[in-house]
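Treating backbone geometry as a discrete language has practical consequences that deserve illustration. Part of our work consisted of pairing the sequence of a single chain with a tokenised description of its backbone. We regard such an encoding as a compact summary of how the chain folds. The amino acid sequence and the backbone structure tokens for this protein are reproduced below.
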Amino acid sequence: MAAAPAPRIPALIERLTPDVVYGAFLEEALGQGRDAVEQGRVSRPDLRLARADAVVVGADRRAHRARLAWIDDGLFSSCTCGAKRCGHAAALGLLLLGEARPAEAEDDKAATSPREAERQRRVSRGASELFDIRRLEGTLDGKRALFAAAVGDDQETVELERSSMARRIATLLAGEFAASTGRASPVVPPLDPVAALRERVGDALEQVVRLADGRLVGVVRGEAPSVAADGAILLPARAAEALHPLGSASPLAGAEVLYRAPAGAGPADPLLAARRDLLALAERKRAGGGALLAAGQPAEALGLFRDAMALACRALDPRGDPGAEPAALLAAIHGHLVPGGLLRETDAAALARAGEAARAFAAVTIAPPDSLVAAIAADAGALVTRARVGAATK
């Protein structure tokens, strides 16, 4: 017995009903979206089976790329403006739904080519109700052909099975979106979020990828800076590498690579970059110790303060990381860092005291004295600060 054919998956444009669109956006966003469509500020559409993209220029004349996608059983929206359910995404939904359409230009001219004449015929036929719409098979190829025709392609069009689709296509054909409404449109600079990320992050940017939901992720060397381009997420390279063993379960699996730094584009001094990575780890350990101390766990905090101090000493060595092995670290401290003036004897003694205290109170129920914990926390902060200055000045 032949297997039953796989069920047909409806396209996004078939799923877009007034209830779906109006239920997904607030009235304020719908009003902004309607204004954007009617003023011809929606352009560069890209329609796929389960998603649609377009560039929408807001009332502030800033361009953003909006996306609508059908995920699981609901409508998902995203936009490079960073807001959820924004007016830019609402504009794309209203346009595809046919609930809003670009206003016709007052100075439309007669057709100057057979192609323009055919376009105007399609506009008048679709906008009027004088023609019967035959219900043919509503295939995805047919939808793509009609959508391509609406933005100026000459592919053969196919009429679709849903009666409301005629009104949608008439909207697309009449507007040709913002590209050719006949009115002067605001000059929109090319939307390049990758260039914005490269400008803000600099040489530390290793890679830019687009996730399945449309969000951009920038992978950076070292610690991720706090500033990023609109709507982008910055992820340290170490975190990205830690996700690799997850395979297809990783959030980065299947992401589209938009930019990859060329080979050899890393820092000019890899030794300095390694020292700064150690320093970043030392700062995280010190901050973790402070959090444990605030949570009433001083014995556990001592171990993190000791680790922060050891990492700071390793970051101070300009010859390279001596490693975490105690003997190698002590040899570097007393054989090079202290004699070279990079570390003081009091700093070395503070590290030794922190190590002894962490070991002594790690496996007992006796709480360490508050004065001892406060002194070690202060020593850790001072040593990390010294290492930060040393790494900044090489």
In short: The longest strand covers residues 63-71. The two ends are 75 Å apart (CA to CA). Residues 270-294 form the longest helix (25 residues). The chain is about 45% helix and 10% strand.
